[in-house]
Design goal:
By secondary structure, this protein is mostly beta strands. It is about 10% helix and about 70% strand. The chain has 1 helix and 8 strands. An 8-stranded antiparallel beta barrel has the order 1-2-3-4-5-6-7-8. The longest helix has 18 residues. The chain is elongated.
Length: about 180
Amino acid sequence: MKKIILALFCMLSAVLNAQDDGFKSSSCLLHNKGMQSAGARVGIGTKNKIGYGLDWSLCLNSNLAVAIEIDQEKAVFGHSDFSNDFLFGGGIDWAFVHPTNWLFLNWTLGANIGHDTWSADVPKNGTIKTLCYGANTGFQMDFYPTSRLNLSLKAQQYLLFSSAENYVKPMFTFGIKYVWNN
């Protein structure tokens, strides 16, 4: 599986490099008004098996972007199986450092709403399905190897509330996005 993902990444990078429009010689920032990106990410938390999601963002200027995300997660907490069936979020990304035109460090802040399923074996068998809501904050490093490809590393901290459980969860993800301008 890892070899397949690596091969797909290499092919995608080659295609995007072939379509590159003079990015390496350009001195303009990639985070400019109207730039959009959409992609997927995968990651882990402290107790989850896997988390994955899709996201889209729109740059409002060189430092500020709006973002929309939808995620799903599977985890085990003690004797409970947990599934975050979906978590929808919207928020902002603020690029507080961009030492080059291809590297940005962002602070992220968002609001979330979603649906959780908890299945417990102890003390009695049962399943709880519940609405959850909350917020998240974190840091993200965006790297642009080409003008059409964004690679990101993200560390987020979620604070979520529901009728079943209130919880804090860290999440660490790697993402890949396609970039375009209006």
